[in-house]
Design brief:
This protein has 2 domains: 1-76, no CATH class; 88-131. It has 6 helices and no strands. The chain has helices at residues 2-18, 20-42, 54-76, 79-87, 89-99, 107-124. It is flat, with a radius of gyration of 18 Å.
Length: 131
């Protein structure tokens, strides 16, 4: 939570200096170096097959699009609004888990989801709308 919050702020600063595409490129370049170090030190012992690499490949595509479009968004809207919109990603995750993985949410879970969405919407609405 803390590192994602800090990174959202840093995206905005980086985009101001480098632009969204350069920020995205260098973000992934530096992340690759860090990922290699972490992988060498902590990798799992499971056998990696070509077929199993489809999942991290799909993940990379969606994360890349997420980061790149977020970097573009912070050029045009406030970082607090862009971060709030981005925070709604859990709604997509919930629907994918329910419809693709057949996960079940309890009543308590649904109530928590409604409260979380409501809180994010309230956070994203400009204060001038409440005056």
């Amino acid at each position: 939570m803390v590192t994602l919050g800090v990174s959202n702020y840093l995206y905005k600063r980086s985009v101001e200096f480098l632009g969204p595409t350069n920020t995205t490129f260098f973000y992934y370049m530096f992340s690759s170096v860090l990922a290699i170090i972490v992988w060498v030190l902590f990798r799992e012992k499971e056998r990696v097959t070509a077929a199993s690499l489809i999942w991290p490949a799909m993940l990379a595509i969606f994360l890349f699009i997420s980061v790149w479009t977020f970097n573009y968004a912070v050029q045009f809207i406030d970082i607090s609004v862009a971060s709030t919109i981005r925070s709604l990603c859990f709604v997509i995750t919930i629907f994918l888990a329910i419809f693709l993985s057949r996960e079940h949410l309890t009543t308590k879970d649904w109530i928590a989801v409604v409260f979380a969405v409501f809180a994010l919407i309230l956070f994203g609405v400009p204060e001038s709308k409440f005056k």
